[in-house]
What we know:
flat; alpha+beta; single chain; Aldehyde Oxidoreductase, domain 3
Amino acid sequence: MNREKMWVNIRDSFWFLPALYSAISILMVILTSALDVWVVPKIEESLPKVFFTEKSVAQTLYGSLITSILTMTTISFSTIMVVLTTYTTQFSPRTLQDFMRSRVTQHVLGVYSFGFVFSLINLLLLGSEKSQGLLSPFITVFISIVCLAFFIIFIHHSSRFVQVNNLIGKIRTDTSDVIAKTFDEKDYHENVEWNPAEIDQYKEREPSVITASESGYLQGIQIDGLLRAAKQQDLLLEATFQVGSYIQKGVPLFYYWEKGEDAESPDDCLDYLLIGNERTDIQDIEFSIQKLVEIAVKAISPSINDPHTAVNCINRIGSLLSELAEVHKPIRYYADQDNHLRLIMEPKEFSDYLYKSFYQIRIYGKQDLTVMNGVLEALHNIAIVHKGTVKEDTWRFGKYMIESVDTNELNELDYERFYNHAKRLADECEEEMTLPPL
C-alpha cells in the first residue's frame, strides 16, 4: 500500500485523534515531571504559592479528575449512542458517517483521552517521599477546565446535529465541497475528447488485465498516482469502474496496453484505489446526494409522515444539482503532465445524477403532491440557470416525474397547482406541455 493511501486510512479512522491526543499527553507528562524535578526547586520561592501543590492534595486531585473524566466520557458515549439510534431510525444509516467522522466529536474524545492519560500517569508517578511543591497539579486543574469546556461543546454539538434541518444543511455543504474538489484544477490533464486514431492504435492489440485483489466499495481514486505509475511503466490504462462502484474480488479493474517494453508490475496500480466495506463521500458525489434522498424517502414514509422535511431535502438536492451542472464535464481521458494519454475512465453523465437524485422519491412520493410539486420546482430552478444539454436532460426527467402522477384521481384544486408547476417547467425548458389544462 502506498504511503498516501495509508495516511488517508489512518487519518479518517475514528481512533486517530484520540490516539494522537494520548501521545501528546504522555509528552506533556514528561515535560511537567521535568519541571517539577529540575525547575520547581529553583524557582519555588520566587513564585506565588498558588502554583504549587502538596503531594497529598495532588493525589486527591488526580483521583477526582480521573473519576470525573470517566463520567464525562461515559455520558458522551451515551449521547453518541442516542444520536446514532436517532440517525438510524429517523434519517438514514448512511448519515452515521457524518456524526462519527465529525472533527468536533473526535476532538472531544481526544481531549478526554488527553486528560485521562495525563492524570493517570501523574498519579502513578506520585511517590511516597516527603511532600514538596508540585507544578503539575496546577496544570491538571487547567486541563480539567478545558475538559469541562469540551464537554459543554459536545453536548451543544450533539443537540444541533440531531436536528434534521442542521443535518440536511451540513450534508449539503459537505457535498458542495466534494463537487468543488472533484472538478477543480488538477496538475494533470483532463479531457472530454481525444484523438480516436491514437486510441485505436493501442486497442488494436489484445489488452492485458489487472484484476481486483479484494472486494468492497471503491471509496476513492488517486488519479495522479495512477498517472505516475502508468507513465513510469509506459502504459495506457482503461478502467472498468467508477467511484462508488462495488468491486468484486477477481473481476477485471483495468485493461492495459504497453506503450513500451519496460512494464514490469502493473498490479501496483491497485495501490491507488481506496476500497472499503462501505461507500463514503470522500470523492463520491452520488453517495453524498443519496444521503439526502434517503432522508427524504424516510420522511414521506407512513411511519414518519413528514413531507416538509422531504421538500427541504429536495430543495437542497436541486441546489446541489445546479452547482454540479455549472462545473460538470464528462471527463473520460486523463493525460500526464507531458500530455500523453494514460487513463481512460467512463464518466458519470449529468442525467445519471439527475435520475439517481429523484427516481426513488418518484416511486415513494408520487401520491403526495407536496413532494411532487417540490421536485418540479427544483427542476424548474435548475432549468432557469442552465441551458443546452442540462436543460434538455431536466425536461426529459421532468416529463418522467409528471407522468408518474395519476391526474385522474386529483381534486380540481390539486390538479390546478400541479398543472401550474408542470407548465412553468415546460415553459422554462421551451417544450410543449404534456398535461391538458382544466
